[in-house]
Amino acid sequence: MNLNPKHTEAFRAVIETGSFEQAATRLHLTSPAISQRVRALESQLGNALVVRSRPARATRMGQRLLQYLKRAKLLETDLATEMAVEQDAPLTLVLALNADSIGTWFFPALSDVLIRERVLLDLTVEDQDHTYTLLETGLAIGCISTEPKPMRGCSAELLGVMRYWLVASKKFLAQWLPDGLTRKAARSAPVVAYTHKDTLQSSFLLSKLGLPDGAYPCHYVPGAASHFNAIRYGLGYGMVPELLLKANAKPSEIVMLTPGKPVEVALYWHTWKVQSPRMEHLSQQIISSARKILK
Fold this sequence. Notes:
The protein is α/β, with parallel strands linked by helices.
């Protein structure tokens, strides 16, 4: 099956930009020309590839095609690099990672190999419960996720367990939780979560105190360092990775609200089974490095 590169380029631009108009701007074409190329590709494959919504998104078959195109591009780039006389062309990898991995072990463990292998990163930061979707829809070629089961055509390797502690500053504790984390106090004490998708705090409060979402005030502060700083400076309390606490917290400023009772989250590395040699090498580095650091 021979796919017209102009047609596949138009399809990718529509999905990546979210509209036919923006795809036309990116490719310096008109919107009707983009639409014509996408329809030609759909006719050739006998399937609808784009849901004409705002933003435009890929159908299930479109997601499969997007995965194929990204893998093919990665393999092509890798081969061209290996065959080049000067093998210093960078390789761009699109990965979906959770903020806590980026904010703790990922760069210290992998910076040397990323520099040595001339890898350029295009990272999407997402909650670990939702990174899997980005791989599934073809928007990433690898991800760190809590999902243990690989999707078809992919592999899943256990990286280890990220341990979290529920903590607060001493100042916050004195103001909001003088008698500890009771159900009554938790109704008014502000929580600090990463995003609305972050369920670490909400799951804990539901299971331990029977408090559902909306039963307590909540800040939303994305980013591992920013989230921790919001807690450190007394805006609220929340779950912080043990690795981040060891590296940054002073014993005099942070209090564990549930000592001896950490929350542990298993993390898995997902990527396609068919990979370029450099991506396969990077995957092995991610797996081995994480296993040395995580529980």
